[in-house]
Amino acid sequence: MGLNIQEIRSDFPVLAEKVYGKPLVYFDNAATTQKPVSVIQAEADVYNHYNSNVHRGVHHLSNVCTQAFEDVRKKVASFIHAASSDEIIFTKGTTDSVNLLAGSLGDTLFSVGDEVILSEMEHHSNIVPWQLLQKRKGIEIKVIPVTDEGELDLDAFEKLFSAKTKLVSVTHISNVLGTINPIEKIIETAHKHGVPVVIDGAQAVHHLPIDVQKLDCDFYVFSGHKMYGPTGVGVLYGKRKWLEIMEPYQGGGEMIDKVSFSGTTFNDIPYKFEAGTPNFAGVIALGAAIDYLQEKGLSKLWEYEHSLFEYAVEKLKTVPNIHFIGKAKARTSVISFLIGTAHPFDVGTLLDKLGFALRTGHHCAQPLMDRFGIPGTVRASFAFYNTKEEIDRLVQALGQIEGMLG
Ligand SMILES: *Cc1c(COP(=O)(O)O)cnc(C)c1O
């Protein structure tokens, strides 16, 4: 398939680390991904060569930095096929993007008693901002239930709409179950009711090719650090027609047109939503992450990664007493499981001692844990720098651990 995985691995310095003297096996990619040298270098280059505040100066460095920063806005727009780079707002991450939306749409769109529809498989970052809005404004939250297989119940979804429904906000891919939600259908249904849709793409944008225009979603949000970019930078895509009528989320420098004590007018989009000095070094490094994905070929990377996932599903079935959470027909990248009655934390601790980095716990999705009546899961999540040999080692280690705990 034309991918040289050993060569790819050598692009990610951290993968060569040892943990307790054992080679690191990094299966916690749904929490954050590792960074290739090119991303680390891009951020260092800013500080080594052209660090200067953006959009501020007439001087050379500021212009170079501003150009590099704005080039990434164009790069992100083309990466997700936005109609215009004006529709790309840089944030701190997915959480920040959803808070921006809850804050701004809360003012623009919602009145007392209006409703937002979320799902039972949302990450806390797509629940709590809406609960804060609920407290502030007296809105209602409706929830799409999850089936035993770990899929959204679309019949129940249809029935949640009322004359008061103002917004639907759902995840593209579940960070716990790996379920790929049928967002095309969800968006179509919501639009039939005249309701805009937010998609949480934190687990999707680095796996699937995203075309926000084809999807026709109103908003799409994601984090840099989950797509091999740096921490502290994320994206909010919004359709121009929404961004233009939305109130600013925070006030400060850069987001204004003219400030006086008798009143302030705001800058155009996207700057209206970017108060203060942005994380320009992080944004520029995010651009390097997109370059990396495009150079290797996003679909080729995902094809390989999905084949790892399928291999892992088959191999893990051979572990005695393993029990999977989430069996959706369409899923990828993430496998959640439990071993017998062992607490996930105990399994994770034993795996850690063997050099494995897996996540255990509720994965910021406590309502979903409640849905399945479990305290948490052990989660293996894959990236294109993982290998079948690493999965074989995990299966062997889990067999050993099952024997110890059983
Ligand atoms: C990680 C994650 C988030 C939150 O992203 P942050 O980078 O922590 O802001 C939201 N939704 C999903 C599905 C995630 O996996």
Automatic annotation (TrEMBL):
The keyword Cell membrane does not apply. Its EC number is 2.8.1.7. SUPFAM superfamilies: PLP-dependent transferases. It catalyses: (sulfur carrier)-H + L-cysteine = (sulfur carrier)-SH + L-alanine. It comes from the Bacteria. InterPro entries: Aminotrans_V_dom, Aminotrans_V_PyrdxlP_BS, Cys_dSase_SufS, Cysteine_dSase, PyrdxlP-dep_Trfase, PyrdxlP-dep_Trfase_major, PyrdxlP-dep_Trfase_small. Residues 25-394 form the Aminotransferase class V domain. Its cofactor is pyridoxal 5'-phosphate. GO terms for biological process: cysteine metabolic process. GO terms for molecular function: cysteine desulfurase activity; lyase activity; pyridoxal phosphate binding. Catalyzes the removal of elemental sulfur and selenium atoms from L-cysteine, L-cystine, L-selenocysteine, and L-selenocystine to produce L-alanine. Belongs to the class-V pyridoxal-phosphate-dependent aminotransferase family. Csd subfamily. This is Cysteine desulfurase. It comes from Thermophagus xiamenensis.
